Amino acid sequence: xxxxxxxxxxxxxxxxxxxxxxxFKGGRISQKELDPLNDAALRPFGDDTSxxxxxAFEKIRARVAGVAPAARALKIR
Length: 77
Fold this sequence. Notes:
The protein has helices at about 15-25, 30-40, 55-65. It has about 80 residues and is mostly helical.
């Protein structure tokens, strides 16, 4: 028996992507210029499956904010 599922939420958008989307909507950049920003925003979320939950969320918060993750989040547990 299949279990029905559906996606919830979304991938947080880093500041660079938000700025790029706004620039695209404002006609300041093209789709060709926006595409690499989308690609870069998606790529990091599949790159680390070995992290603890806390580390993963710290990395996501840092990527959204456009800063380096806090050193405490990168400690191996």
